Amino acid sequence: MSTGTTPATAPAARTGPGGDSGAGTGALRVWFRDLAMGARFAFTGGRQGWTRTLLTGVGVGLGVALLLISTALPSALAARTDRGDARSWLGSPTAEHPGQDTLLIARAAQSYRGKDIEGVLVEAEGPDAPVPPGLTQVPGPGELAVSPALKRLLDSPDGALLRERLDGRITQTVGDAGLTGPAELLFYSGRSGLRPAVEGFSRVERITAFAYERQTEKLGPVLVLLVVLTFVALLLPVAVFIAAAVRFGGERRDRRLAALRLVGADSRMVRRIAAGEALAGSLAGLVLGAGFFVLARSVVGGFDIQQRSVFPADLDPAPWLAALVAVAVPAAAVGVTLFALRGVVIEPLGVVRTAKPARRRLWWRLLVPLAGLGLLVPLTGRGDDGGEFNRWQVTAGVALLLVGITALLPWLLERLVGRMGGGPVSWQLAVRRLQVNTAGAARLVNGIAVAVAGAIALQMLFSGVEDDYTKDTGQDPGRAAVSILIGDDAQDDLDQLARQVAGYEGITGAVPLRSVQAAHTAPAEDGLIDVTIGSCAALREVALLDSCKDGDAFLATGSDDRARTYGGTAAPGDKLFAGNVRGYEKAVAPVPFTVPAELPRVASRPDPVGALRAGLLLTPSVAPADTGGYGSRQIFVMAEDTDGDGLERARTAAYKASPLSTAMTLAQTKRDAGYSTVRIGLFFGATAVLVLIGTSLLVSQVEQLRERRALLSSLVAFGTPRSTLSLSVLWQTALPVGVGMALAAVFGVGLGVVLMRMAAAPVRIDWGPVAALTGVGAGVVALVTALSLPPLLRMARPDGLRTE
Amino acid sequence: MTHAPAGSLLAATGLHKAYGPTKALDGADFSVHPGEVVAVMGPSGSGKSTLLHCLAGIVPPDSGSVTYAGRELTAMSDAERSALRRTEFGFVFQFGQLVPELTCVENVALPLRLAGVRRKEAEHTALAWMEKLQVEDLAGQRPGEVSGGQGQRVAVARSLVTGPRVLFADEPTGALDSLNGELVMQLLTEAARSTNAAVVLVTHETRVAAWSDREIVVRDGRSRDMERAI
Question: Which PANTHER family does the record match to this protein (chain B) (predicted)?
Answer without folding.
Answer: ABC TRANSPORTER RELATED, IMPORT ATP-BINDING PROTEIN
